[in-house]
Design brief:
It is built from 14 helices and ten strands. It is α/β, with parallel strands linked by helices and 303 residues long. It has a single domain, classed as Rossmann fold (3-Layer(aba) Sandwich), CATH 3.40.50. It is globular.
């Protein structure tokens, strides 16, 4: 692993390229409108490739790789690295194996909350220098998320890093009630969870920042789609009021909601340009200033 990786973690500057990111989605068995939802994930994979640095060498484990598009991107971006994608969904892994083929890339189907999977990986690839886990945490119940992080602790090199991305609960839930999201989290909660599993949070990056006044207005008027685990009313009149306020306070955000169905390609490009990463201060207390990013990327080292 590159020795200056930790030094670069606080301030990463790179030229973002939509064409490079868009290429990840070619050939996926998804309708165009659904591909738009993957823009946050592909933007984070792009960031991860820059964070790691293509001149370095090591072993990278991508947990929850799903269809493998991001794992393949990293294998292409980091030719000196051994890249292993892991997912619990057999059909997804089967697709990834057929769709992507590189000398430094492989895919495995296994449950990363099970000890036998950890033992198998330690035997086959050894310790990893980087472990990525993007847009997975929110799908795993809290107790299992501790097992997931515990497995990462066993698999990561002492000088390695884990990169975990997940939606920012209050911001993500403005328009969406996603039943499959059983463990959305905010930075302070993630810091405590990391500490509980022997990791130290070193950096947080925010992607897709919402207009703070818009969030304040919608939250005060109780027009959000979800609070915690509880679904709020999304009746047509309330939805119309919410969209009207969003159009007034943040036109780019409301435009994305419309163009995703009418012009998915334009939606993806516009959304990508909103995914510019921003360094976020580590939270100190529950009273720390709230960050208005839609998605957070957490970087941590083992302790």
């Amino acid at each position: 692993m590159s020795g200056d990786m930790a030094m670069r973690a606080g301030s990463i500057h790179y030229k973002r390229d939509y064409r490079r990111v868009r290429h990840m989605l070619d050939g996926l068995p998804l309708p165009p409108g659904n591909k738009a939802y993957l823009i946050p994930a592909v933007s984070i994979y792009e960031f991860a490739g820059e964070f790691i640095g293509k001149q370095s060498r090591g072993v990278l484990l991508d947990i929850g790789c799903w269809l493998g598009y991001g794992t393949d991107y990293l294998a292409r971006r980091l030719p000196g690295w051994k890249i292993v994608g892991v997912d619990i969904m057999e059909k997804a892994v089967s697709f990834a194996k057929k769709r992507f083929s590189r000398d430094n890339l492989s895919f495995l189907c296994m449950d990363m909350t099970e000890e036998k999977s950890i033992e198998e990986l330690l035997f086959t690839i050894g310790k990893a220098d980087i472990i990525c886990c993007f847009e997975v945490f929110e799908h795993v119940p809290h107790d299992y998320s501790l097992s997931l992080l515990g497995g990462m602790k066993q698999l990561i090199n002492p000088e390695g890093r884990i990169l975990v991305s997940t939606p920012n609960r209050p911001i993500y839930d403005i328009n969406t009630y996603e039943k499959k999201h059983v463990n959305e989290i905010v930075p302070l909660e993630m810091m405590h969870t990391m500490e509980e599993t022997s990791f130290k949070l070193t950096n947080i990056y925010g992607f897709d920042r919402m207009n703070p006044p818009m969030f304040t207005v919608l939250d005060k008027l109780n027009l959000v789609a979800r609070r915690g685990k509880e679904r709020c009313s999304t009746s047509p009149p309330r939805t119309a009021i919410r969209l009207g306020l969003q159009t007034l306070l943040d036109p780019r955000y409301s435009k994305r909601l419309v163009t995703r169905k009418l012009n998915p390609e334009r939606c993806m490009k516009d959304w990508y340009h909103r995914m510019e990463p921003r360094a976020i201060p580590l939270p100190k207390t529950s009273d720390s200033e709230m960050d208005h990013s839609m998605v957070h990327l957490f970087i941590a080292r083992p302790t």
